[in-house]
Amino acid sequence: MADPGPHDIEIIAKRSAFQGYFRIDEYTVRHGRFDGGWHKPLTREVFERGHASAVLPYDPLEGVFVLCEQFRIGAYAAHMTPFQIELVAGIIEPGETPEAVARREVQEEAGLEILDLLPVAHYLASPGGATETTALYLGRVVAPESGGIFGLDGEGEHIRVHILPEANLRRMLDEGRLENAQTIIAAQWFFLNRDKVIKTWT
Annotated catalytic, 155? Predict the structure, then answer.
């Protein structure tokens, strides 16, 4: 067998270690080394959560964002704020596009219609141990004057919607009060690209 390259991968074994609300697979794998030869075999668990679509709803005429607040068990277990301020998001089911999921979830979680979508990023949530990717968007909406309570009981959702002016979100970002990657990435992208967004949407 030819010597491996630095990006060659061999799956030695794979098994399902757990199946519940989510799935965990166990891999035994080796990969080529940058300095030649094979790295020693590694055994790693991989969290199979599926892939997500997330959107930051924004009303360019009013200069406000629509954000969700809901309970997150991972945040609680990490000793962080259990009720997270975050984007609208949902899992992409087989046969769905990320754009369709973004539109559906904004309707379900905030009671709004997306008028336009701008792609922000497509990234791995935690590449060291999960396959989950997120397709991230900025969505143009007509924001209501106030928030409300939304979500589907059948999916265990109880979501409080907040209407935040640009200055408020920028302050939360600058003060480190946003604690989840989706929201931080989307907020940073918006403030880096605000002029382009406003020119496109107004």
Answer: yes
For 74-110, what is each residue's pLDDT tens digit?
999 999 999 999 999 999 999 999 999 999 999 999 9
53: helix, strand or coil: strand
Which amino acid is it at 120?
A: V
Q: Print burial letters for 118-141: b (CB count within 10 Å at least 16), e (below 16).
A: bebeeeebeeeebbbbbbbbbbbb
Strand residues in the chain grouped as ranges (E): 9-19, 23-31, 42-48, 52-59, 64-71, 83-86, 88-91, 116-124, 133-140, 148-150, 159-165
Structural domains of the chain sorted by starting position, each given as residue range(s) with its CATH number in brackets: 9-48 (no CATH), 52-201 (3.90.79.10)
CA dihedral 119→121→122→123, nearest 10 degrees, is -160
Q: Which of 86, 155, 157, 179 is catalytic?
A: 155
CA torsion angle 62 57 159 21 (round to 10):
180
Q: What is the pTM of this model?
A: 0.89
